[in-house]
Write a structure and sequence with these properties.
Elements (H helix, E strand, L loop, with lengths): L1 H23 L5 H8 L25 E4 L10 E10 L5 E11 L2 E8 L5 E5 L5
Antiparallel strand pairs: 1-2, 1-5, 2-3, 3-4
């Protein structure tokens, strides 16, 4: 029984280490974080501002791309579109998952699709 207990503890520690390593794989990069979440993969780029905005409407599972500036630094910002809906006032909003909006932290926000900081979206119909 002691052997089984130690084996279960070792497996639990190993799984925790793998999970921590997978979270750390993207460093503090919003782009690498969204790459792990989205099935739509833009070309490899230096920063979020270099990802082509090929759509102007969001799609669940796609990328939302933000303009470089005061709020998103000179490198721009990318986030994952988790959900899209219309609030009772008629405003269309998106729930986004992101990394590094707050320095090296995951966050979830809801923003209007009319947000002036949005420069476009990345998704396609290839699959």
């Amino acid at each position: 029984m002691k052997t089984l207990t130690w084996l279960l503890i070792a497996v639990g520690v190993f799984i925790s280490l793998i999970a921590s390593a997978q979270e750390a794989d993207h460093g503090c990069s919003c782009v690498e974080y969204v790459r792990q979440l989205s099935r739509y993969q833009p070309p490899r780029v230096y920063s979020a501002k270099d990802i082509p905005a090929i759509r102007f409407e969001p799609k669940e599972g796609g990328w939302v791309l933000f303009k470089p500036g005061k709020l998103y630094s000179e490198w721009g910002h990318a986030a994952y579109v988790e959900k899209i809906w219309t609030v009772p006032s008629g405003l269309k909003v998106i729930e986004i998952k992101e990394f590094n909006f707050y320095h090296c932290k995951k966050s979830v926000r809801t923003i209007p699709v009319t947000d002036d900081a949005i420069r476009g979206y990345f998704w396609h119909n290839l699959y």
